[in-house]
Write a structure and sequence with these properties.
mainly beta, 26-stranded mixed beta sheet
Length: 693
């Protein structure tokens, strides 16, 4: 049963400092687990808290507000899964069967306002078909990130400690322009306070979203502790790992910040996360920065360990209306604050479509011509991997792959990489790539207000000091055509065994390194260039590879030819008997890829062989059938004995006996009585048998 209570009893003295929460609420409501609440019965500004902590379920029905301006209302309410501190676990399940209009906002929290949870904290939202959670009215600037309306998160909004893990699960179906709907596995702090999650945080998005012509129906997903206050001192700490999973082909996600998020233009906010893993298995995605994000001039956000993001089949091109399809492993910093990854970033693309910009480092953005630069640095390494033909097809034809960081050319931002930067293409056959690959970073003009907008084709300046370590381009078992690609700022190109690649040039690389086992690969042209390349000062190192005799450019400087160690061919069977006029086939086995075999008979009058190893017997006798490999230049043979059944077997002739002396040392009976020490041959000597003898 719902229990309405006045301000004097349960009203919370909460006045939000940020645009996110904005309004002080007027009344408190106590609900029992299992209650059904109709939107029309809720007073604007109400705070709903459970009558008992633990595991709670609440169902919302009804309609409030509409899509047209004339229908807009401004009813806001807040739902908690706990009241005060919780001993043990705190869980809230929301069955959302309602439709909320554009000017309304609803915010769900698994914990209480500033309360501690000694166990785990979880929030599950089951959205019924046709239900909607409008974040705002979809008009600029109302749909900007600072004006988001609706929030779903698994922690508490303001302070406290969760001793265990936090988990958010959203499933079902949503409709409506829920631009910048915020979903977090931990919490969002909006006033002076500090939330600490000592375990891990997980956000799983399984909900489908109806495309109604907006910027998507589910956006701005956060998965860790977030300090989002526009002023004051707010702090969010996630000590463990943050994991985000998007796994519904009809899910729509406008932005993903895989790390934490801080916003402060006065005062200070900060957010810290242990490590981040993002898995985009299905769904329609606009832009992703898998690391931390900072949107204020006095905000700081950090991921203390590594960031990993993996795309399996997400579609980045379906909702590319406001953002350029962007995938980055680092963080984003807008303004004077920082968004730093202290570990390394890993970006893996296995499939999907529409990825326009792929960045290993961070995105540093200063405020237009004010040159107040945000810091979005990676202290470790950056690694980008495009895996398989499906991974290559996930990129647009003119995609940019940036090993370092990306910043705009106003000159105030920072997006540096403290370690090495590696771009790897692996296990690709018959693929084509015509985009741009840079081993450093880029400065680019950003227009139209979009921080993710590419705008780097015509007016791009190399960010040559983006990567402090080596910039490496790796091709691992790639047979593809990259001759239409633009490759720049690479220190080294690495090729593993099985690679046969077409390039326009070396992209500035002065070193080529061969790795892996090249045994029995013949003499492949690992690199083929559209024109002769300048190899002056270019080193070719195969010291860490096996099975290579030599690797060098051909005389025309259009190919890098590798001569491999090759095992000899083998012929089976090793011996064969045939009767006159009969045929059989011998076979040659070679481990060398693409090697052909030529056959030959030592005596064609006895036995002949054709190009397929078919042997035909012509005359009694012996012939050797041999096979020679075209690459290994090795030969193996089969001894063929041709028998004539009408001819008698030849009479064996005893071998001649050579007379000799058996000495005392070799004679075991020399000690017998009357036996001489040495035994001499008989006289006369036995001769070979002949007709006369």
């Amino acid at each position: 049963m719902i229990k309405w209570q006045g301000k004097c009893k349960l009203a919370l003295a909460f006045v939000a400092a940020a645009a996110m929460l904005g309004t002080a609420w007027a009344a408190g409501v106590s609900y029992d687990s299992g209650d059904r609440i109709e939107l029309g019965s809720i007073e604007s500004g109400s705070v709903l808290s459970p009558s008992a902590n633990g595991s709670n379920t609440i169902t919302f029905t009804g309609t409030e507000g509409g899509e047209a301006d004339a229908e807009l209302s401004s009813k806001d309410f807040f739902v908690y899964g706990a009241s005060g501190d919780v001993t043990g676990d705190s869980s809230l399940t929301v069955d959302w069967q309602a439709k909320l209009g554009t000017k309304n906002k609803v915010q769900f929290f698994a914990g209480g306002d500033g309360g501690n949870v000694s166990g785990n904290s979880s929030l599950t939202v089951n959205a019924a078909d046709g239900s909607s959670l409008y974040a705002n009215n979809g008009k600029w600037p109302e749909f900007a990130p600072n004006n988001q309306q609706s929030i779903i998160l698994a922690g508490s909004p303001n302070g406290g400690v969760v001793k265990g893990n936090t988990k958010l699960t959203i499933s079902g179906a949503l409709s409506g322009k829920s631009n910048f709907l915020k979903a977090s596995g931990a919490a969002m702090i909006d006033k002076v306070g500090s939330l600490t999650v000592e375990g891990d945080s997980t956000a799983e998005i399984y909900a489908s979203c109806v495309d109604d012509g907006g910027f998507g129906a589910n956006g701005g997903l956060h998965i860790v502790a977030n300090g989002l206050g526009s002023d004051g001192e707010a702090r969010g700490i996630l000590k463990g790992k943050a994991t985000l999973i998007v796994d519904n082909p009809n899910a729509r996600v406008e932005q993903i910040w895989g790390g934490n998020n801080s916003v402060a233009n006065s005062g200070h906010t900060s957010a810290e996360t242990g490590s981040v893993e993002v898995y985009l298995r299905q769904g329609k995605v606009g832009a992703v920065t898998a690391g931390p994000s900072n949107w204020g001039s006095n905000a700081n956000a950090v991921v203390s360990k590594d960031v990993y993001v993996e795309v399996t089949s997400a579609d980045f091109g379906a909702d590319a209306k406001f953002f350029s399809p962007y995938l980055g492993g680092g963080g984003v910093s807008w303004g004077g604050g920082s968004a730093v990854v202290k570990g390394s970033t890993f970006v893996v693309v296995k499939g999907g479509r529409g990825i326009d910009t792929l960045v290993g480092g961070g995105l540093g953005r200063c405020t237009n011509d004010k040159k107040i630069g945000g810091q979005a640095d990676i202290e470790g390494d950056t690694r980008i991997t495009v895996k398989g033909n499906s991974g290559l097809k996930a990129l647009t034809e003119d995609a940019w792959i940036i090993a370092g960081g990306k910043r705009n050319n106003y000159g105030g931002g920072s997006a540096a990489v403290g370690g090495n930067a590696t771009v790897t293409f692996s296990d690709i056959k018959d693929g084509v790539f015509k985009g741009t690959i840079t081993g450093q970073g880029v400065n680019s003009t950003i227009t139209g207000g979009g921080i993710y907008n590419k705008k780097i084709d015509a007016d791009t300046i190399d960010y040559t000091d983006s990567v402090s370590g080596d910039s490496v381009l790796v091709f691992d078992n790639v047979q593809a055509d990259f001759s239409g690609a633009t490759i720049v700022q690479m220190d080294r190109i690495e090729l593993t065994s099985g690679t046969k690649l077409k390039l326009a040039d070396l992209g500035g690389a002065t070193a080529i390194k061969l790795t892996g086992n090249w045994t029995n690969l013949g003499t492949p042209s690992a690199l083929t260039f559209t024109n002769a390349v300048n190899v002056q000062g270019v080193t070719v190192d195969y010291s860490e590879a096996t099975g290579i005799v030599s690797a060098a450019f051909n005389e025309a400087k259009t190919e890098l030819v590798v001569t491999c160690k090759n095992a000899p061919i083998a012929v089976t069977p090793a011996a064969l008997k045939l009767q006159l006029g009969k045929s059989d086939t011998v076979k040659a086995a070679t481990p060398v890829v693409g090697e052909t075999v030529s056959w030959k008979s030592s005596d064609t009058a006895v036995a002949a062989v054709d190009g397929d190893g078919k042997v035909t017997a012509h005359k009694a006798g012996i012939a050797v059938i041999s096979a020679t490999g075209s690459v290994t230049k090795t030969t193996a043979g089969c001894t063929v004995t041709v028998e004539d059944p009408a001819a008698p077997d030849p009479v064996p002739t005893p071998a001649p006996v050579t007379p000799t002396v058996i000495t005392e040392k070799d004679n075991p009976v020399t000690k017998d009585k009357d036996v001489p020490a040495d035994v001499k041959p008989a006289t006369p000597v036995i001769k070979p048998a002949t007709k006369e003898n």
